[in-house]
Design goal:
The chain is of the alpha/beta class. The protein has one domain: Aldolase class I (TIM Barrel, Alpha-Beta Barrel), CATH 3.20.20.70. The strands form three sheets. It has an eight-stranded parallel β-sheet, sandwiched between helices. Strand 6 and strand 7 form a beta hairpin. Helix 4 runs parallel beside helix 5 and helix 4 packs parallel to helix 11. The longest helix has 19 residues. It is globular and about 60 Å long. The N and C termini lie far apart (about 60 Å).
Length: about 350
Protein backbone atom coordinates (compact mmCIF):
# COMPACT_ATOMS: atom_id res chain seq x y z
CA UNK A 1 0.00 0.00 0.00
CA UNK A 2 2.88 2.35 0.81
CA UNK A 3 4.34 1.80 -2.64
CA UNK A 4 0.94 2.39 -4.23
CA UNK A 5 0.54 5.58 -2.23
CA UNK A 6 4.00 6.70 -3.27
CA UNK A 7 3.17 5.98 -6.91
CA UNK A 8 -0.05 7.93 -6.62
CA UNK A 9 1.75 10.79 -4.92
CA UNK A 10 4.35 10.78 -7.65
CA UNK A 11 1.65 11.00 -10.28
CA UNK A 12 0.08 13.93 -8.45
CA UNK A 13 3.38 15.76 -8.66
CA UNK A 14 3.71 15.05 -12.38
CA UNK A 15 0.11 15.53 -13.57
CA UNK A 16 -2.17 18.49 -13.05
CA UNK A 17 -4.86 16.50 -11.26
CA UNK A 18 -5.81 15.05 -7.89
CA UNK A 19 -5.87 11.26 -7.58
CA UNK A 20 -8.85 10.92 -5.26
CA UNK A 21 -9.01 7.15 -4.66
CA UNK A 22 -8.17 3.80 -6.19
CA UNK A 23 -11.24 2.21 -7.82
CA UNK A 24 -12.16 -1.46 -7.75
CA UNK A 25 -10.99 -3.36 -10.81
CA UNK A 26 -13.56 -5.14 -13.02
CA UNK A 27 -12.84 -8.58 -11.50
CA UNK A 28 -13.60 -7.24 -8.03
CA UNK A 29 -16.82 -5.57 -9.15
CA UNK A 30 -17.93 -8.76 -10.90
CA UNK A 31 -17.27 -10.70 -7.68
CA UNK A 32 -19.46 -8.24 -5.79
CA UNK A 33 -22.18 -8.34 -8.47
CA UNK A 34 -21.94 -11.73 -10.21
CA UNK A 35 -24.17 -13.03 -12.99
CA UNK A 36 -26.20 -16.16 -12.45
CA UNK A 37 -25.95 -19.01 -14.93
CA UNK A 38 -29.38 -18.11 -16.29
CA UNK A 39 -28.33 -14.50 -16.89
CA UNK A 40 -25.22 -15.61 -18.77
CA UNK A 41 -27.33 -17.91 -20.94
CA UNK A 42 -29.68 -15.02 -21.72
CA UNK A 43 -26.81 -12.78 -22.82
CA UNK A 44 -25.23 -15.52 -24.92
CA UNK A 45 -28.53 -16.30 -26.63
CA UNK A 46 -29.16 -12.65 -27.50
CA UNK A 47 -25.63 -12.23 -28.88
CA UNK A 48 -26.11 -15.35 -31.01
CA UNK A 49 -29.35 -13.90 -32.41
CA UNK A 50 -27.60 -10.65 -33.28
CA UNK A 51 -24.70 -12.44 -34.92
CA UNK A 52 -27.16 -14.40 -37.04
CA UNK A 53 -28.63 -11.11 -38.29
CA UNK A 54 -25.25 -9.59 -39.11
CA UNK A 55 -24.00 -12.76 -40.81
CA UNK A 56 -27.14 -13.02 -42.95
CA UNK A 57 -28.22 -16.32 -41.40
CA UNK A 58 -31.35 -14.55 -40.12
CA UNK A 59 -33.63 -12.25 -42.14
CA UNK A 60 -34.68 -10.30 -39.04
CA UNK A 61 -33.51 -6.75 -38.51
CA UNK A 62 -31.94 -5.38 -35.34
CA UNK A 63 -33.64 -2.45 -33.65
CA UNK A 64 -31.38 -0.70 -31.14
CA UNK A 65 -33.81 1.54 -29.33
CA UNK A 66 -33.99 3.45 -26.08
CA UNK A 67 -33.04 6.62 -24.22
CA UNK A 68 -30.25 8.88 -25.37
CA UNK A 69 -28.73 8.35 -21.93
CA UNK A 70 -29.72 6.09 -19.04
CA UNK A 71 -30.17 8.75 -16.38
CA UNK A 72 -32.65 7.06 -14.03
CA UNK A 73 -32.77 3.35 -13.16
CA UNK A 74 -36.52 3.21 -12.50
CA UNK A 75 -37.63 4.97 -15.68
CA UNK A 76 -35.12 3.10 -17.86
CA UNK A 77 -36.32 -0.27 -16.57
CA UNK A 78 -39.93 0.87 -16.92
CA UNK A 79 -39.18 1.69 -20.56
CA UNK A 80 -37.42 -1.62 -21.24
CA UNK A 81 -40.20 -3.59 -19.54
CA UNK A 82 -42.68 -2.03 -21.96
CA UNK A 83 -40.64 -3.44 -24.84
CA UNK A 84 -41.27 -7.04 -23.72
CA UNK A 85 -44.81 -7.44 -25.13
CA UNK A 86 -43.83 -5.46 -28.24
CA UNK A 87 -40.90 -7.80 -28.86
CA UNK A 88 -43.30 -10.74 -28.62
CA UNK A 89 -45.54 -9.20 -31.30
CA UNK A 90 -42.67 -8.64 -33.75
CA UNK A 91 -40.44 -11.58 -32.81
CA UNK A 92 -40.53 -13.11 -36.29
CA UNK A 93 -39.19 -9.94 -37.95
CA UNK A 94 -37.33 -7.76 -35.44
CA UNK A 95 -34.81 -8.34 -32.67
CA UNK A 96 -35.08 -5.49 -30.18
CA UNK A 97 -31.89 -4.43 -28.40
CA UNK A 98 -32.66 -1.82 -25.72
CA UNK A 99 -30.24 1.05 -25.30
CA UNK A 100 -28.76 1.50 -21.84
CA UNK A 101 -26.22 4.18 -22.62
CA UNK A 102 -24.40 4.86 -19.36
CA UNK A 103 -21.75 7.22 -20.79
CA UNK A 104 -22.57 10.48 -22.53
CA UNK A 105 -19.95 12.09 -24.81
CA UNK A 106 -19.90 15.87 -24.46
CA UNK A 107 -18.60 17.98 -27.31
CA UNK A 108 -17.13 20.64 -25.01
CA UNK A 109 -16.60 18.39 -21.97
CA UNK A 110 -19.28 20.20 -19.96
CA UNK A 111 -22.64 18.87 -18.82
CA UNK A 112 -24.05 15.54 -17.66
CA UNK A 113 -21.61 12.78 -18.63
CA UNK A 114 -23.83 9.82 -17.85
CA UNK A 115 -24.65 7.33 -15.13
CA UNK A 116 -21.07 6.18 -14.68
CA UNK A 117 -20.08 9.74 -13.69
CA UNK A 118 -23.22 10.77 -11.85
CA UNK A 119 -25.60 8.06 -10.64
CA UNK A 120 -27.65 11.01 -9.39
CA UNK A 121 -27.61 13.69 -12.12
CA UNK A 122 -28.29 16.40 -9.54
CA UNK A 123 -25.38 15.37 -7.26
CA UNK A 124 -21.62 15.57 -7.54
CA UNK A 125 -19.78 12.93 -9.61
CA UNK A 126 -19.05 9.64 -7.84
CA UNK A 127 -17.21 7.26 -10.12
CA UNK A 128 -17.29 4.22 -7.84
CA UNK A 129 -21.03 4.50 -7.28
CA UNK A 130 -21.35 5.06 -11.01
CA UNK A 131 -19.50 1.86 -11.87
CA UNK A 132 -21.77 -0.08 -9.51
CA UNK A 133 -24.91 1.65 -10.79
CA UNK A 134 -24.14 0.84 -14.43
CA UNK A 135 -23.50 -2.83 -13.66
CA UNK A 136 -26.61 -3.12 -11.49
CA UNK A 137 -28.79 -1.51 -14.16
CA UNK A 138 -27.55 -3.81 -16.93
CA UNK A 139 -27.93 -6.82 -14.61
CA UNK A 140 -31.51 -5.91 -13.72
CA UNK A 141 -32.34 -5.50 -17.40
CA UNK A 142 -31.06 -9.00 -18.21
CA UNK A 143 -32.66 -10.64 -15.17
CA UNK A 144 -36.02 -8.84 -15.20
CA UNK A 145 -36.68 -8.40 -18.93
CA UNK A 146 -34.64 -11.06 -20.75
CA UNK A 147 -32.93 -8.46 -22.93
CA UNK A 148 -29.17 -8.11 -23.35
CA UNK A 149 -28.78 -4.40 -23.97
CA UNK A 150 -26.57 -2.00 -25.90
CA UNK A 151 -24.14 0.53 -24.48
CA UNK A 152 -21.68 2.97 -26.00
CA UNK A 153 -17.99 2.31 -25.42
CA UNK A 154 -16.91 5.84 -24.57
CA UNK A 155 -14.04 4.71 -22.31
CA UNK A 156 -12.41 1.49 -23.60
CA UNK A 157 -10.81 0.72 -20.21
CA UNK A 158 -14.28 0.59 -18.62
CA UNK A 159 -15.63 -2.07 -20.98
CA UNK A 160 -14.51 -4.93 -18.71
CA UNK A 161 -16.98 -3.82 -16.05
CA UNK A 162 -19.82 -4.77 -18.42
CA UNK A 163 -18.35 -7.18 -20.97
CA UNK A 164 -20.32 -10.17 -19.62
CA UNK A 165 -23.63 -8.28 -19.86
CA UNK A 166 -23.73 -6.47 -23.19
CA UNK A 167 -25.45 -7.67 -26.33
CA UNK A 168 -24.24 -4.83 -28.53
CA UNK A 169 -21.58 -2.11 -28.36
CA UNK A 170 -21.43 1.17 -30.27
CA UNK A 171 -18.34 3.31 -30.89
CA UNK A 172 -19.37 6.93 -31.33
CA UNK A 173 -18.59 9.48 -34.01
CA UNK A 174 -15.95 11.22 -31.88
CA UNK A 175 -14.29 7.97 -30.77
CA UNK A 176 -14.15 6.06 -34.04
CA UNK A 177 -10.77 7.52 -35.04
CA UNK A 178 -9.15 6.57 -31.73
CA UNK A 179 -6.76 3.62 -31.87
CA UNK A 180 -7.58 2.27 -28.40
CA UNK A 181 -11.28 2.12 -29.28
CA UNK A 182 -10.48 0.24 -32.47
CA UNK A 183 -8.15 -2.23 -30.78
CA UNK A 184 -10.50 -2.84 -27.87
CA UNK A 185 -13.36 -3.45 -30.33
CA UNK A 186 -11.22 -6.20 -31.87
CA UNK A 187 -11.35 -8.01 -28.51
CA UNK A 188 -15.11 -7.73 -27.91
CA UNK A 189 -17.28 -10.81 -28.33
CA UNK A 190 -20.59 -9.16 -29.30
CA UNK A 191 -21.25 -7.12 -32.47
CA UNK A 192 -19.69 -3.64 -32.44
CA UNK A 193 -21.01 -0.76 -34.53
CA UNK A 194 -18.60 1.90 -35.77
CA UNK A 195 -20.23 5.26 -36.48
CA UNK A 196 -19.07 7.51 -39.26
CA UNK A 197 -17.19 10.51 -37.80
CA UNK A 198 -18.88 13.88 -37.47
CA UNK A 199 -17.03 15.00 -40.63
CA UNK A 200 -18.82 12.32 -42.63
CA UNK A 201 -15.58 10.79 -43.97
CA UNK A 202 -16.60 7.17 -44.58
CA UNK A 203 -12.99 6.07 -45.04
CA UNK A 204 -12.41 6.75 -41.33
CA UNK A 205 -15.28 4.44 -40.41
CA UNK A 206 -14.17 1.75 -42.86
CA UNK A 207 -10.63 1.87 -41.46
CA UNK A 208 -12.08 1.47 -37.96
CA UNK A 209 -14.08 -1.59 -39.05
CA UNK A 210 -10.99 -3.12 -40.66
CA UNK A 211 -8.95 -2.53 -37.51
CA UNK A 212 -11.67 -4.03 -35.32
CA UNK A 213 -11.91 -7.15 -37.47
CA UNK A 214 -8.17 -7.83 -37.29
CA UNK A 215 -6.02 -9.35 -34.55
CA UNK A 216 -3.82 -7.06 -32.47
CA UNK A 217 -1.23 -6.98 -29.70
CA UNK A 218 -1.78 -4.01 -27.38
CA UNK A 219 -1.79 -2.79 -23.79
CA UNK A 220 -5.15 -3.02 -22.02
CA UNK A 221 -5.70 -2.19 -18.36
CA UNK A 222 -2.04 -2.82 -17.54
CA UNK A 223 -1.86 -6.12 -19.44
CA UNK A 224 -0.14 -7.06 -22.66
CA UNK A 225 -2.96 -8.59 -24.66
CA UNK A 226 -3.62 -10.32 -27.97
CA UNK A 227 -7.06 -9.85 -29.51
CA UNK A 228 -8.53 -12.25 -32.05
CA UNK A 229 -10.57 -9.76 -34.09
CA UNK A 230 -14.30 -9.11 -34.19
CA UNK A 231 -15.85 -10.35 -37.46
CA UNK A 232 -19.11 -8.61 -36.55
CA UNK A 233 -17.72 -5.07 -36.46
CA UNK A 234 -19.86 -3.02 -38.85
CA UNK A 235 -20.90 0.45 -39.98
CA UNK A 236 -23.37 2.90 -38.47
CA UNK A 237 -24.47 5.85 -40.60
CA UNK A 238 -25.45 8.80 -38.38
CA UNK A 239 -25.19 11.82 -40.68
CA UNK A 240 -22.49 14.49 -40.50
CA UNK A 241 -21.85 18.22 -40.21
CA UNK A 242 -19.96 20.55 -42.51
CA UNK A 243 -17.29 23.07 -41.53
CA UNK A 244 -20.01 25.49 -40.45
CA UNK A 245 -21.72 22.97 -38.19
CA UNK A 246 -24.70 22.46 -40.53
CA UNK A 247 -26.05 18.89 -40.30
CA UNK A 248 -26.51 16.68 -43.36
CA UNK A 249 -28.00 13.18 -43.61
CA UNK A 250 -26.32 10.09 -45.03
CA UNK A 251 -29.16 7.57 -44.78
CA UNK A 252 -30.47 8.14 -48.32
CA UNK A 253 -30.33 5.46 -51.02
CA UNK A 254 -27.27 6.97 -52.69
CA UNK A 255 -25.35 7.03 -49.41
CA UNK A 256 -26.15 3.41 -48.63
CA UNK A 257 -25.25 2.36 -52.19
CA UNK A 258 -21.94 4.18 -51.81
CA UNK A 259 -21.27 2.31 -48.58
CA UNK A 260 -22.09 -0.99 -50.31
CA UNK A 261 -19.54 -0.10 -52.98
CA UNK A 262 -16.91 0.69 -50.35
CA UNK A 263 -17.53 -2.65 -48.69
CA UNK A 264 -17.16 -4.28 -52.11
CA UNK A 265 -13.64 -2.91 -52.39
CA UNK A 266 -12.60 -4.69 -49.17
CA UNK A 267 -12.40 -8.22 -47.83
CA UNK A 268 -14.27 -7.33 -44.65
CA UNK A 269 -16.41 -10.01 -43.09
CA UNK A 270 -20.18 -9.69 -42.65
CA UNK A 271 -20.76 -6.35 -44.44
CA UNK A 272 -23.53 -4.50 -42.61
CA UNK A 273 -24.89 -1.10 -41.70
CA UNK A 274 -27.18 0.16 -38.97
CA UNK A 275 -28.97 3.40 -39.81
CA UNK A 276 -28.95 5.85 -36.91
CA UNK A 277 -32.23 7.70 -37.37
CA UNK A 278 -31.36 10.58 -35.04
CA UNK A 279 -28.30 12.84 -34.68
CA UNK A 280 -27.31 14.56 -37.92
CA UNK A 281 -29.58 12.28 -39.98
CA UNK A 282 -32.58 13.91 -38.33
CA UNK A 283 -31.00 17.25 -37.53
CA UNK A 284 -31.54 16.17 -33.89
CA UNK A 285 -35.29 16.27 -34.42
CA UNK A 286 -36.46 13.01 -32.82
CA UNK A 287 -39.85 13.23 -34.54
CA UNK A 288 -38.13 12.73 -37.90
CA UNK A 289 -36.99 9.25 -36.89
CA UNK A 290 -40.12 7.36 -37.99
CA UNK A 291 -40.00 8.98 -41.43
CA UNK A 292 -36.32 8.12 -41.85
CA UNK A 293 -36.76 4.47 -40.86
CA UNK A 294 -39.72 4.07 -43.21
CA UNK A 295 -37.87 5.72 -46.09
CA UNK A 296 -34.95 3.33 -45.69
CA UNK A 297 -37.29 0.34 -45.49
CA UNK A 298 -38.97 1.48 -48.69
CA UNK A 299 -35.84 1.79 -50.83
CA UNK A 300 -34.31 -1.28 -49.18
CA UNK A 301 -36.86 -3.41 -51.04
CA UNK A 302 -35.73 -2.36 -54.51
CA UNK A 303 -32.01 -3.06 -54.44
CA UNK A 304 -30.66 -6.48 -53.40
CA UNK A 305 -27.28 -5.07 -52.36
CA UNK A 306 -28.89 -2.43 -50.15
CA UNK A 307 -31.35 -4.91 -48.65
CA UNK A 308 -28.49 -7.25 -47.81
CA UNK A 309 -26.42 -4.46 -46.27
CA UNK A 310 -29.01 -2.71 -44.08
CA UNK A 311 -29.34 -4.81 -40.92
CA UNK A 312 -31.32 -2.46 -38.73
CA UNK A 313 -31.88 0.90 -37.09
CA UNK A 314 -30.99 2.99 -34.07
CA UNK A 315 -33.82 4.99 -32.53
CA UNK A 316 -33.57 7.40 -29.58
CA UNK A 317 -36.72 6.81 -27.58
CA UNK A 318 -37.96 7.21 -24.01
CA UNK A 319 -41.22 7.36 -22.09
CA UNK A 320 -41.96 11.05 -22.79
CA UNK A 321 -41.38 13.06 -25.97
CA UNK A 322 -38.62 15.66 -26.07
CA UNK A 323 -36.07 16.60 -23.43
CA UNK A 324 -35.71 18.54 -20.19
CA UNK A 325 -32.93 20.11 -18.17
CA UNK A 326 -31.28 18.18 -15.34
CA UNK A 327 -33.64 18.28 -12.39
CA UNK A 328 -36.64 19.06 -14.59
CA UNK A 329 -38.70 16.47 -12.76
CA UNK A 330 -40.48 14.84 -15.72
CA UNK A 331 -40.39 11.07 -15.21
CA UNK A 332 -39.04 9.27 -18.26
CA UNK A 333 -38.02 12.33 -20.26
CA UNK A 334 -34.46 12.66 -21.56
CA UNK A 335 -32.01 15.06 -19.90
CA UNK A 336 -29.67 14.90 -22.90
CA UNK A 337 -30.81 14.71 -26.55
CA UNK A 338 -34.55 14.86 -27.25
CA UNK A 339 -36.21 11.46 -27.73
CA UNK A 340 -39.34 10.00 -29.28
CA UNK A 341 -41.98 9.23 -26.63
CA UNK A 342 -43.34 5.78 -25.83
CA UNK A 343 -46.61 5.85 -27.79
CA UNK A 344 -44.88 7.00 -30.99
CA UNK A 345 -42.07 4.49 -30.44
CA UNK A 346 -44.40 1.54 -29.98
CA UNK A 347 -46.33 2.53 -33.10
CA UNK A 348 -43.07 2.83 -35.06
CA UNK A 349 -41.89 -0.65 -34.06
CA UNK A 350 -45.16 -2.19 -35.22
CA UNK A 351 -45.08 -0.19 -38.46
CA UNK A 352 -41.52 -1.33 -39.17
CA UNK A 353 -42.60 -4.93 -38.70
CA UNK A 354 -45.52 -4.41 -41.09
CA UNK A 355 -43.15 -3.07 -43.76
CA UNK A 356 -40.79 -6.04 -43.58
Amino acid sequence: MAAAAADAKGEEQIMNMEFKRKLAIPMEVKEMYPLTGKMSETVDARIAELKAIFSGASDKIALIIGPCSADNEDSVLDYISRLIPVQEKVREKILIVPRIYTNKPRTTGDGYKGLVHQPDPTAQPDLFKGIIATRELHMRAVKETGFACADEMLYPENHKYLDDLLGYVAVGARSVEDQQHRLTASAIECPVGMKNPTSGDLSVMMNAIQAAQHQHHFIYRGWEGHSYGNPFAHAILRGYVDQHGTPYPNYHFESVRRLAALYGETELQNPAVIIDCNHSNSGKDPFEQPRIAKEVLSFRKYDPAVKKLVKGFMIESYLVDGRQSVGGGVYGQSITDACLGWEKSERLILEIADML
